[in-house]
């Protein structure tokens, strides 16, 4: 009891450990697997991410040139980022924002018939 | 007058009940972490009250499965209104990585209406705080308090 | 004598997870306890039939968020065994470090929950406050606080820079100091001992016969720990299990408390002895047609430098700017597992066993997970009758139940 | 006029009893009983208006009484021989011999002593006996009818039953009005006999056994009584109660010799009041039909025991003996309250709580200050009303649900809302302010102030009391049904319930009036001081203050307000109880979905704390200690 | 008379507000002790306002009645204390509230509130005798059970009854349901009984109970204040120190079981009382 | 590769008893669906961190004697196998009857390959 008393009294006189989120934000650490982003212009619709995603939440349509991800099903594992051959996927270190509706990330890109054309 | 005061109270005192609806514990421990010194959600008047009859907000983590779906419904029914539901984590939002497992029904919204979705796997404590704040914002709009 | 029947769970504030016990009590003495399971059962072992064996790593990590790292480790070791992959030594050390950090965070979490089970809220708060440091280490080194997702077949996804190692050591020193401050309270406080000593006694014989594992087993006097089998880097680091002899809740608590401190030492030792080199091996298998896979910690220009000013938490020293070596982590996974393996690792809650069976396709044929709590539930049912209702939370918590891994 | 009143209260019941014994006609019996009850009640009220008196009936009665004494003793002896009970045989033989010596060799001036004398204390007792007792007798009509239906008796034993009941009323009135201790002795033995016959009424194995035990314990008390008056005759030279009381202070100063007869009489009182170590006869007596328990074993006969102790209090005031009586009382109060807390049998709880309250009265008598005596008298009054009410409720409940176990009364409100409410009122009046019982307890505790050991025991005891009453009241409410259908009940059962409940409330409300007109005069007479002033009807003394009317007013208003709020709650707002999310109602029975998918109906039980309040374990210790205190009490003076 | 009525009204209106503030401060300090930031001081008031606005929900209409009687009992006992009435009487009136609270809990079929009710009774069994002993000890010193008599003392009761103050503290820990004796109903929910007696009270009825609790806090602190009746500053200091000690004890102990509580309360209460009495006689 | 010791149906309990008496701990049992050939059930025993694996091969619909009377701890895994594979065990000390985890609305025996094939088709 006395040991704990020492502890709590010390706490009483020390500054509280609380981070006053959301009024004061300590940023997440570098390398945090946060929100998933796609640079749709770089995407070649190769479907690697769709195949490799453990949560099966990415859908790529290489004909229509769409890339969608069910944001509410993503487990932020970063596998898609790792496997994307063009590195067009990335994860920012902010956590994904809460929402009152279910969200889907849907991107419309230009289906790349030939890599050359796209490059121009 | 009293009505206004009560609405004030509603905003400032959301008591939560947390139901682990088949979560992997990842989200659970983050919910618990919210109570601890670093995040301390009691700053917002939030108490983890443990009893649905006293709670205003239901925090659900995890996937709904066939055995716990009626429990989730029961708990929701026992909460006196006005009340809000927050689904936490990929699992709570949609069933997450387990959507295709045979005993999984899906996200929380398959059983009860969800007011706020908190994505993440697990959802960070900060995100959970955001979630409660978002729920309160929603309540505010419902109560017409923004005007 | 008048009896009261109590539904204990599934939604109950002292149960971190849904579990139902039908307790029959008389004057608050438990005379019968009958469980209902299945509130967390998802059937994820079955998912191996629709996910390939690499994706299964992400799935088994989510058997349980608390020991996610060790599930992945156990699984990967199994696959590596089947496919005959030799994991680089550095990767083994990294696996050990993250694994032991997991044990620390899990034990701290448990110590807090345990304190809460006997109604000691401020102790709960203190343990969880310390735990946040470990969570910070996780986030800074793995990219997520809880589901770290660092293990992959063939090695690990991230590396530790020397600066990070140094920072981790600093953090550990502070944490250890803070934990030691709580030592007298959790192990010697009068009220705490009053609530733990002699509660839920599991005798030495019972412990073995009922198949108890982990701190439950070691609290009853058995020096048995799967780390002795030398998985990951334990073969090189050496290991002695921690044992207590009373078999009660207090002994289990003492085991966990001492193991927390032991894990600090292991992490420090592993950091000191960690060899340089690759962190992931190329995985070769029978079939050569798989696409190459790149394993890396981070890529591209998405990283902004770490903002020191915003970092005003408990951290004494801010973490160094990250300089994660990129590119060196490339590994290739080729081939498909064909064969059976049984692997064991020591999770915070005890021994975890995987049985894996591949039949030469990219999906595993069978993944069987025997988790520690699964083994500890029969002993729990044996020690509950005869205790007081107020001791039910203490005793249930003392096995450190993890229902999500029990039911998977 | 006075003659008539005494005749009506004492002799009339004897005559009516005789009529009832031969009468077989149900309806006539009913009429006679109700009429007798009415007459008795009116007579007692009239007597109260008349105030204190002294009366000597014709000498013929003296002879009759002596004859009666011997008849009773021989009946007892006969019972003893028939049952081969050595104790009873020898005790009754001793009494016969003692009585012969006393009657024929010691008492010379037969007839010179007024047979009857009444002061306010006696009149309060008469009131209780005549009103509460009569109500119970009336209740007996409806109760016994159903009782015999339950037992499937071919030949009704009701004539016998009511014979003893009504006879008993007369005997009790005689006892409390008696001035000549020989007369009192006769009535005393009468009540013993009635009690014996009525406990054994159902004639089961256990009833016979318990009746026998009650008999030997009471005969032991009777013997003590007889030898007490023999010694008294020797020491004081008179058997006139009034004279002894009047000369009380002088004995108190003299001390010594008077205390042995006092001890014997007080001891007799304690056996009659079933104080430890003799509590077992009273708990055993609970096998009798409920009206018997209510009448004899709670509100009246056992009160005879405390009556004699309180009556004689001025005589032994200020002696060491008095302190021991107080200690003894306080100890038994605490001990039997603990025993009550360990019981789930409703009647047993009532029995132990009766003993406990009687012990409190004895403790008050022992404390022997004006305030304490006031407390004692008020306790006698309020306890009689509330406890009779409780017994009648349990009787009515038992007949309906077939159990007297309080565990089976869970949710009683759904089955018999009216009786449940009446019972709850009874319980409230037993333990909560502003009701009389609690007020008297307040007086008792405050009058004990300064005597720490007493205080401690009283404090612990009252804590335990709340424990067992409160849970009983609470569990009767435990019902999922919002509105329950009122139950049907015989008018002779319901009326006494309602009247007693009303009395419990109203008399409590008028407690200042009761105090002023009934209690204060007696206390003043014997102690030359009134303990309380009554500003605004509040009991005020230097030691403390009890606000009667303000409390009634404020709590009443609060209660009314609460009731109004509660009425606003509609059935729609009723939800299922918290069951950790597994709640499930099947066939209207709340419960939960348990292991293996089975419905588990709710089941809860009180704590009876075997560990602390186990009856067998505790009784042993209590008896030993009580006996020890008694022995010290007797020989303490010599030390 | 007039002053008494003014005091009574003050007790009715100001006491709960003060009680709420003290509860708020309690929560804040508790947070600090745990190295947390803590809720606003007015948090208890927000809580009650919110509860008042909740949909009423009961398992049984009796509960509503019981909740209201509970608050009436608590309020009345504070009024009696402020008007200088009899200590024992105050105590008995307090019991009215407590008894109804338990009855309401027992009126619900939920095993949690049933067990909570039973435990609350055991708590009462533990603290009631202690309180009576303390009152008796006060009466020993002042010669009267009247509160007003305490204020006629020329020196603080604490000098004469130091050990009784500890007994009082013990009783108060039980009465306020603070750790280590938060047995029947914890302030928060993480307890095997899910709030015990309070389990089935919800919404406005729970609000009533919370307000009643504020009254009780004031009553309890008022009783403590009696031990330094000679100066207002002394009272405030004594009460503040006592309450702070309560909070610290609340934070440095594990919850104990009711068996331990019963044994220790009775045993310790008796021993301390006897020693204090001897000390009083010795003087 | 995993070294296993073959086991026949009538040895199951005897082997369990032998290990129990020899101070072995039952680690767990593992059921595997091997298609047409039926099921394989592994019994994993452990003593001082050395493991022994017994392999019992049975056709489907065989009733297996329960070892839970010997090793109480086997009751969970046997019930689990009942849930997932529909393997019946005789004399389990506490039989959940195929509802340890599963509610009626979930397909019985979800782990059996046949039913998977049915689901996918
Ligand atoms: S892997 Fe990359 S390039 Fe291929 S589809 Fe996905 S995002 Fe586009
Ligand atoms: S982060 Fe993981 S879960 Fe999310 S989309 Fe990428 S691969 Fe899928
Ligand atoms: S975490 Fe999200 S993306 Fe990942 S599996 Fe779950 S739901 Fe899918
Ligand atoms: S969202 Fe992720 S962390 Fe949360 S419960 Fe689901 S799998 Fe676990
Ligand atoms: S962590 Fe502790 S306080 Fe929270 S629910 Fe679990 S037992 Fe209760
Ligand atoms: S033992 Fe528990 S914490 Fe560890 S992996 Fe299993 S479920 Fe997770
Ligand atoms: S034991 Fe509990 S905390 Fe640990 S992994 Fe399993 S579910 Fe998670
Ligand atoms: S105060 Fe303590 S015991 Fe109560 S709920 Fe909170 S953590 Fe649990």
TrEMBL record, chain A:
GO CC, alphabetical: membrane
Organism of this sequence: Solidesulfovibrio aerotolerans
Keyword 4Fe-4S: yes
Metal-binding in keyword set: yes
Name assigned to this protein: 4Fe-4S ferredoxin
Alphabetized GO MF terms: 4 iron, 4 sulfur cluster binding; metal ion binding; oxidoreductase activity, acting on NAD(P)H
UniProt KW keywords: 4Fe-4S, Iron, Iron-sulfur, Metal-binding, Repeat
Domain 4Fe-4S ferredoxin-type: 34-63, 65-94
Domain of life the protein comes from: Bacteria
Any matching Pfam family: Fer4_7
InterPro entries in alphabetical order: 4Fe4S_Fe-S-bd, 4Fe4S_Fe_S_CS, NADH_quinone_OxRdtase_chainI
Gene3D superfamilies: 3.30.70.3270
TrEMBL record, chain B:
Keyword Iron-sulfur: yes
NCBIfam families, per the entry: nuoB_fam, PRK06411.1
An example molecular function term from Gene Ontology annotations: NADH dehydrogenase (ubiquinone) activity
Protein name (record): NADH-quinone oxidoreductase subunit B
Reported cofactor(s): [4Fe-4S] cluster
Residue stretches making up the NADH:ubiquinone oxidoreductase-like 20kDa subunit domain: 24-134
UniProt keyword list: 4Fe-4S, Iron, Iron-sulfur, Metal-binding, NAD
Superkingdom of this protein's organism: Bacteria
InterPro entries hit by this protein: Complex_I_20kDa-like (IPR052375), NADH_UbQ_OxRdtase-like_20kDa (IPR006137), NADH_UQ_OxRdtase_20Kd_su (IPR006138)
Pfam family, one: Oxidored_q6
Protein family per UniProt: Belongs to the complex I 20 kDa subunit family.
Automatic annotation (TrEMBL), chain D:
A GO CC annotation given for this chain: membrane
Xref: InterPro entries: CPA3_Na-H_Antiporter_A, ND/Mrp_TM, Proton_antipo_N
Transmembrane segments: 6-24, 31-54, 60-80, 87-106, 121-141, 161-177, 183-201, 213-231, 251-269, 320-342, 349-369, 375-397, 409-432, 452-474, 495-515, 543-563, 621-638
Keywords: Membrane, Transmembrane, Transmembrane helix
Sequence ranges assigned to domain NADH-Ubiquinone oxidoreductase (complex I) chain 5 N-terminal in this UniProt record: 115-150
Predominant cellular place of this UniProt entry's protein: membrane
Membrane topology, from the record: Multi-pass membrane protein
Keyword ATP-binding in annotation: no
Location(s) in or outside the cell: Endomembrane system; Membrane
Residues covered by the NADH:quinone oxidoreductase/Mrp antiporter transmembrane domain: 178-459
PANTHER family referenced in this protein's UniProt entry, alphabetically: NA(+)/H(+) ANTIPORTER SUBUNIT, NA(+)_H(+) ANTIPORTER SUBUNIT A
Name of the protein in its database record: NADH-quinone oxidoreductase subunit L
Organism of origin: Solidesulfovibrio aerotolerans
From TrEMBL, chain E:
Principal location: membrane
Protein's UniProt keywords contain Transmembrane helix: yes
Membrane topology: Multi-pass membrane protein
Pfam family, one: NADHdh
UniProt entry keywords in alphabetical sequence: Membrane, Transmembrane, Transmembrane helix
InterPro entries recorded: ComplexI_Subunit1, NADH_UbQ_OxRdtase_su1/FPO
Superkingdom of the organism of origin: Bacteria
Entry's transmembrane regions: 62-82, 87-106, 126-145, 157-174, 217-244, 265-282
Keyword match Transmembrane helix: yes
Annotated localization: Membrane
An example Gene Ontology CC term for this record: plasma membrane
Designated name of the protein: NADH-quinone oxidoreductase subunit H
Organism lineage: Bacteria, Pseudomonadati, Thermodesulfobacteriota, Desulfovibrionia, Desulfovibrionales
